[in-house]
Amino acid sequence: MFWRRHRERVTRTAEIAGAGFGGLTVATELARRGWRVRVHEQAIRPPAFGAGIFLWENGLRVLEELGGLPAALARCYEAPHWEERDADGDLLGVRPLPLPDGLRMVTLTRHDLLAVLLERAAQAGVELRPASRVTAADPEGALVTADGTRWEADLVVGADGIRSVVRGSLGLLDRHERFDFGLYRFLVPRDRAPGRDGRWGGYVNYWHLNLRRRVLYVPCNDEDLYLLLGALIGDPALATPLDAELWCSTFPSLRPVLAELPESPRYDQYEVLSLREWSAGRAAVVGDAAHAMPPTIGQGAGTAMMNAINLARAVSDHEDVPTALRLWEDENRPLTEQTQEESMTALRALFPRSDARPGGWSDGTLTVAATRPTSRRSTSG
């Protein structure tokens, strides 16, 4: 009995690769539950490329449990409606927000969300190690960095994105698909919009169905407007430097916000991946490293944060980390795969080939968005 009590007082340790949304969430929750946690970030400062992000109810609930919700809501934007419009600006459909049963969806810049998570991590006592590039993980419980250092721990986590080196070193990848749709994402000053009411105050999808081009218009706060410009791979609209006049001529009603575009903003291609398993031994992966999906339903961050907080709770409630990781995957993977499928369904319907209007959110998407973090009480730390 004495030995057991002594063992339970030993502080468990975690080494995490990646200071993004998933990595900081799992780090903060582990630290709050008594773990000693270090996060390795290869950049000098945690990266947050200049774009906006959607957070549905599930992501907001994770922030609430971490104590970061008030700060996030202070810098977010909550539109009164979601609209679909054609290239000339004519209304195709509108959906009031929030959604049924008070289901919230807000937007904020990636920088602002990252700032909230960094503050919560610091408050919890997480050590952030910048300019520390992880090159491999050992399922026995270690991360290896580019300088050759081996960082041993009870738990290691790869939250290092869709090109995850942790996942690659563990040999977990099963399927990775890329699709023929590219997109640019960036922020512009919100005062470029002619007003703050009507369509200028809402979230709006603009569609040119014949050319198969899209603009997503998303206010993030009083100062920042997030724009997504999408088209099929090979479309000259995706060439850099971006041709502002081409986009203005395609979407004339958006000329005030499209007349001046960054030359080479962040470019992505829609992708999806799945793994044989989410963990090997004492090593696990979260976020895009485990379940990247097209951003068609705005669930990348929320799903990453939900799985990350649940991971921290699972390993904190079990003495045996490998067993805890298997249970965590069993509990979280079905809903994650449903979320990926919802994103794929939305991608397949992104540009209807007829005169049909682009669809809204399915019941499945709304079910995913309403998810709550697993409720557990820590038995260690």
Provide a compact summary of the structure.
This protein is of the alpha/beta class.
How would you sum up this structure, described in words?
It is a single chain. This protein has 381 residues and is α/β, with parallel strands linked by helices. Helices cover 33% and strands 28% of the residues. The chain is built from twelve helices and 18 strands. It has helices spanning 2-9, 21-32, 57-66, 69-74, 110-124, 165-170, 244-250, 255-258, 288-291, 300-316, 321-348, 363-369, and strands at residues 13-17, 36-41, 52-56, 81-86, 91-96, 105-109, 127-130, 134-138, 142-145, 150-152, 155-158, 173-189, 203-208, 213-219, 224-232, 266-275, 279-280, 283-285. The strands form four sheets. Strands 5-4-13-14-15-12-16 form a seven-stranded mixed beta sheet. The chain has a six-stranded mixed beta sheet with strand order 7-2-1-11-18-17. A three-stranded antiparallel beta sheet has the order 8-9-10. Strand 4 (81-86) and strand 5 form a beta hairpin. Helix 2 packs parallel to helix 10 and helix 10 (300-316) packs antiparallel against helix 11.
